[in-house]
Amino acid sequence: MKRLVGFLLCFWTVMFPFYVNAEETGASTDLAPGAKSAILIEASTGTVIYEKNSHEKLPPASMTKMMSMLLIVESIENGIIGWDDVITVSENASSMGGSQILLETGEQMKVSDLFKGVAVMSGNDAVVALAEAVAGSTDEFVAMMNKRAKELGITDTNFKNPHGLDDANHYSSAYDMSLIAKELVKHEKVLEFTQIYEDYLRKGTDKELWLVNTNKLVRFYPGVDGLKTGYTSTAGYCLTATANKNNMRLIAVAMGEESSTTRNAEVSAMLDYGYAQYKIDTILNKDDVIAKMAVEKAKKEQISLVPMNSVTLLNKKTTKLGEITYKLDVDEVKAPVKVGDVVGKLTILNDGKEIQKIEVTVAEDVKKANLFELYVRYLKDIVSGNISI
C-alpha cells in the first residue's frame, strides 16, 4: 500500500525552462550532410538535439566495440574478471585481422592493457581476447551483446561479432549507437581509457607498441574524452564522440561518411551546435534530501529520502523559465532497507504540469532494530506522550 505525500514539496523553488522535446530541437540546417545517418543527444537526459536518418540500419564497423566495452566493464564491476587479471591469448584472438595490437597466440596480457588496446587502438584481437575471458567464447559473448541491447531498449541492432568487421547480418543505427554510448559514459573508468591520445603497450620490451588514438577529436576538440571510431569499406567512416563542457555531456554519432576528415568535421559541427544552443539545468542532485520519514522497526527513527539519480533538464539557452514543484509518492517501507532500493517516486512538475517522474531511495542503509531498541523507543514514546496507555 502506498502513502501519498499530499503536498507539493516546498523545500526550495527552482526555476525551470519549458520541457524540450526532440521535435523542437532539430537544427535548421543539415549539420552532417556527408553522413548517411547521424544524431546528437545530451547524455544525462537522452534528449535528441539533432538527427538525420537516425534509425537507418547500417554497418557500425568498430563502433560495435562500445557494446563490447560496456559488457567488459560491467563484468569487471561484477567481479567476473579484474583489471589486473592476466589473460592468455587464444589462437582465435591472435588471428583477427583489421586493426590490432599484434597479439600472439599464448601471449599473456593484463585486462587493463587489453582494454587500452581496444579503447585507443581499436584492437580486434584485444576485444576478442577479452570477450573470450568474459563469456568463454565469442559466440556466447555476442549472445550477451544482443541480450544487453534489448535491455537498453535497442531495436535497430543485431550483433554478429564483438569487433565490427563486416557481416551481412551485423547492423545498427546512429540512434542505437547513441543509446549504447549513453550507457557507456556512466562508467568513468572507460573514459579514462578512451581519452588517452597516445600511450604504449609492452613498454621497454622488443615488442613495444606505440598506441595513437583513432579518435583524433580527443586531441583536437576541447572536452572530447571518447568514444569510438569505425571504418570498413562497407560501413564507410563512422564515429561516436562524446564531449563534456559547461556541465553538459553531449554524444554525437555519424555513420557512412566518405572520409575521416569529413567525419571529424561533421561530428565537430554537431558538438558545436549543441554547445552553442543548449544548456543543462540541474534540478536535483542525487544526494539532495527530498524528505524525511519514519521506517517501521528501523534502527534509526527517521531516514532521509533522495533521488535515485541526479535530475537534469536540457533547455535552449533562450527558453523562458517557470516554477518547479514536487509531489512525493512513498511506498510502505520496512527495515532493513539499502541504498538503491526503490522506496517511492517523485513527480516533478512545471507550473503544475508533470514533466518527469523519478525513483526515490534512502540516503543510507537502514538496519532493522532489535527487540531491546524497540522496547526503549516504546518507553520513550510513553514518556513523551506519543503513546497513551
Tell me what the structure shows:
Residues 1-25 have low confidence and may be disordered. The longest helix has 18 residues, at 260-277. Helix 3 (111-119) packs across helix 4 and helix 4 (124-135) packs across helix 5 (138-151). The protein is of the alpha+beta class and 389 residues long. The chain is built from 10 helices and 17 strands.
Compose a concise summary of this entry.
27% of the residues lie in helices and 31% in strands.
Question: What keyword list fits this structure?
Answer:
17 strands, 6-stranded antiparallel β-sheet, 31% strand, 389 residues, alpha+beta, 5-stranded antiparallel β-sheet, single chain
Topology:
Layout: E1 2-17, E2 37-42, E3 48-52, H1 65-77, E4 86-88, H2 91-94, E5 108-110, H3 111-119, H4 124-135, H5 138-151, H6 174-184, H7 188-194, E6 198-201, E7 209-212, H8 217-220, E8 224-232, E9 236-245, E10 248-257, H9 260-277, E11 278-284, E12 291-293, E13 303-307, E14 311-316, E15 321-331, E16 344-350, E17 353-362, H10 371-384
Antiparallel strand pairs: 1-15, 2-3, 2-10, 4-5, 6-7, 8-9, 9-10, 11-14, 12-13, 13-17, 15-16, 16-17
